[in-house]
């Protein structure tokens, strides 16, 4: 059963990225002792991408068998596959030095792949099937959004597991997102949150706000919910949480 969120405080955004990369490598190696292919949902965002770059550089020398890691995405911008805005493109470029098994890499469909937005979300739902993530990584926007679930927006209270998102408050307007239903089936959820512009949202997410107003507040892993956070983003947290 999940305990409350665990706050892991770091000095700077770079420290969070380094810590995320190191934690991911060590947890994956640990999981691989008992699990043939750990299932990981990746996030987009600047800090996560830095962590992927670190893993791309150092990951080969870790104990992880990268051919036995399945990669999924928590959300995606519905743009062309070669668009630099794609979360998957950014992550896979960074991770390209690793010997991943491409059959275990599951990017969300891109615009121009032959599917409309709704069909693309349905196709990803079917591909996901009954997979539950061992680790789900999440960023958080300054407005408290997670994946592409935005506050007070239809995405924050949509039904289903994988949803099409239109009129996203953050560009690009069309996206695909997992819902909290799927995210919260993950054994472990790891937030990576940095910067002073996230401080107010972090405080709200960790002090009982509603998930429609602050989607990050509705996230809870089955076993663990970690917040890898820098001092700037943690500046408004109640002292008892740190
Ligand atoms: O649009 C998105 O933004 C969030 C947060 O990004 P960050 O750069 O502020 O960390 C990210 O979690 C999400 O995957 C992405 O699509």
Automatic annotation (TrEMBL):
Belongs to the glucosamine/galactosamine-6-phosphate isomerase family. 6-phosphogluconolactonase subfamily. The keyword Hydrolase applies. GO terms for biological process: carbohydrate metabolic process; pentose-phosphate shunt. Keywords: Hydrolase. Pathway: Carbohydrate degradation; pentose phosphate pathway; D-ribulose 5-phosphate from D-glucose 6-phosphate (oxidative stage): step 2/3. GO terms for molecular function: 6-phosphogluconolactonase activity. Residues 12-227 form the Glucosamine/galactosamine-6-phosphate isomerase domain. Signal peptide: none annotated. Its EC number is 3.1.1.31. InterPro entries: 6-phosphogluconolactonase_DevB, 6PGL, Glc/Gal-6P_isomerase, NagB/RpiA_transferase-like. This is 6-phosphogluconolactonase. Hydrolysis of 6-phosphogluconolactone to 6-phosphogluconate. It comes from the Bacteria. It catalyses: 6-phospho-D-glucono-1,5-lactone + H2O = 6-phospho-D-gluconate + H(+).
């Amino acid at each position: 059963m999940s305990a409350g969120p665990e706050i892991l405080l770091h000095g700077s955004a770079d420290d969070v990225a380094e810590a995320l990369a190191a934690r991911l490598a060590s947890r994956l190696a640990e999981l691989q002792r008992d699990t043939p292919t750990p299932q990981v949902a990746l996030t987009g965002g600047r800090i996560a991408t830095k962590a992927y770059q670190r893993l791309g550089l150092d990951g080969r020398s870790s104990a992880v068998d990268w051919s036995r890691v399945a990669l999924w995405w928590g959300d995606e911008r519905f743009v062309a596959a070669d668009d630099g805005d794609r979360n998957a493109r950014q992550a896979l470029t960074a991770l390209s030095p690793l010997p991943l098994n491409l059959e275990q890499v599951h990017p969300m469909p891109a615009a121009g792949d032959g599917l409309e937005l709704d069909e693309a979300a349905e196709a990803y739902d079917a591909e996901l099937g009954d997979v539950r993530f061992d680790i789900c990584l999440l960023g958080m926007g300054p407005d408290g959004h997670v994946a592409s679930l935005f506050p007070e927006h239809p995405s924050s209270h949509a039904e289903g597991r994988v949803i099409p998102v239109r009129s996203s408050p953050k560009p690009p307007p069309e996206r695909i997102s997992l819902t909290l239903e799927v995210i919260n089936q993950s054994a472990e959820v790891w937030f990576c949150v940095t910067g002073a512009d996230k401080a107010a949202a972090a405080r709200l997410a960790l002090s009982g706000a509603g998930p429609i107003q602050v989607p990050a507040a509705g996230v809870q892993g089955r076993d663990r919910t970690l917040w890898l956070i820098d001092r700037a983003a943690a500046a408004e947290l109640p002292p008892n949480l740190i």
